[in-house]
Design goal:
Elements (H helix, E strand, L loop, with lengths): L2 H11 L4 H6 L3 H19 L15 H18 L3 H19 L16
Helix pairs in contact: 1-4, 3-4, 4-5
């Protein structure tokens, strides 16, 4: 998923339609979205900042799904919709924990009671 795709999905979650995005000059919204994307991607992956919202860099699907809700959280907060921001914050934190909790191996941890 590209950064612009993350922004588009987050904008739809915030109630910003494609018509609004295509009809208006959104330099301020794009700047806020780029800051939100960079903040969320740094939080999830420790990734270097993306230079432009139209960048062709790809984001892993598992990370991108969490990033959409993180960006929606920041955008809704920027637009003053604290109810949506709280909702997106809860969803983002759940998805963030799933991204951050990579289990590399499972070890047998049962206690032994006798000589083996």
């Amino acid at each position: 998923m590209k950064p612009n795709d993350i922004f588009s999905r987050a904008a739809r979650l915030c109630g910003i339609g494609e018509e609004f995005l295509s009809e208006n000059e959104l330099t301020d919204v794009h700047a806020r979205a780029l800051d939100a994307i960079n903040t969320v991607l740094f939080d999830l992956e420790g990734r270097e900042p993306i230079e432009s919202i139209g960048s062709q860099e790809t984001v892993a699907e598992k990370t991108a799904e969490a990033a959409v809700y993180g960006v929606a959280m920041f955008l809704s907060l920027a637009f003053g919709d604290t109810d949506k921001s709280a909702l997106f914050s809860d969803i983002y934190n759940q998805k963030r924990s799933a991204v951050k909790s990579n289990i590399a191996s499972v070890v047998d941890a049962l206690p032994r009671t006798g000589a083996v």
